[in-house]
Recover the amino acids of this structure.
């Protein structure tokens, strides 16, 4: 597993997480994770942080202060010792860490700028999913997401999932019979800044706006993907935090080539 290091000092490590790799194991799958990479390359981090429990099994999270979804790429911060872990954890808890994502969402987002302030709970129909707005179950936790439109564009689409809806495309509604590789659909490229850190927050809030992140098999399983994209179009681009000396550290991950190609 090749992982690019974006920043490193004696206390903190920041890596560029690829799409398609889970941060930590789930106790079931044998796929390699970021945790495996850390334990191999930084064995001294083995006992840094706190373990999590999955189906009564303890799973190590060596130095992992926060997480990214499996199919999300970009900047991921890790602590190399317990002191750094507690220091960074408090910054996340107190919302002092600034995060910026890029996302491509379905459809043409009307407003150039917006703030989504909608609590997030659990979906009543799927334990894997979260839900904002009416119907959410369990504890509703505050969730705030700010977004800005960077570009609106059209692109050729392909049938990406087994069950497909019929989205609006140029020239009318796309039907199964008249589907063509040259069919174009509308998309919007966003800069997104989550002010809170809820599970799947950006994906849930964009779904709430009826502009789900494209190629999202969990929150848009009936949607279409652009022809040349086969991954979730969500990237953690920038993170800003303080190191243990009090210096502000700002780390940026380049936009993946497959997403950059889409917006040119």
């Amino acid at each position: 597993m090749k992982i690019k290091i974006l920043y490193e000092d004696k206390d903190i490590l920041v890596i560029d997480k690829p799409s398609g790799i889970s941060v930590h194991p789930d106790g079931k799958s044998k796929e390699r994770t970021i945790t495996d990479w850390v334990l191999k390359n930084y064995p001294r981090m083995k006992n840094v942080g706190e373990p999590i429990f999955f189906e009564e099994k303890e799973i190590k999270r060596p130095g992992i202060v926060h997480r990214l979804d499996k199919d999300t790429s970009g900047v991921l911060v890790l602590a190399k010792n317990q002191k750094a872990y507690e220091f960074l954890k408090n910054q996340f808890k107190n919302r002092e860490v600034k995060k910026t994502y890029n996302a491509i969402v379905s459809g043409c987002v009307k407003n150039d700028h917006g703030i989504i302030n909608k609590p997030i709970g659990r979906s009543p129909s799927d334990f894997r999913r979260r839900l904002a707005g009416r119907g959410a179950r369990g504890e509703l936790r505050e969730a705030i997401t700010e977004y800005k439109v960077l570009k609106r564009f059209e692109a050729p689409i392909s049938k990406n999932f087994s069950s497909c809806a019929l989205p609006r495309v140029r020239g009318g509604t796309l039907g199964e019979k008249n589907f063509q590789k040259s069919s174009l659909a509308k998309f919007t490229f966003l800069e997104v800044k989550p002010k809170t850190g809820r599970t799947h927050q950006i994906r849930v809030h964009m779904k709430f706006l009826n502009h789900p992140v494209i190629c999202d098999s969990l929150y848009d399983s009936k949607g279409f993907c652009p022809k040349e994209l086969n991954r979730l179009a969500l990237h953690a681009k920038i993170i800003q935090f303080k190191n243990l000396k009090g210096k502000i550290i700002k780390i940026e991950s380049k936009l993946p080539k497959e997403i950059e190609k889409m917006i040119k």
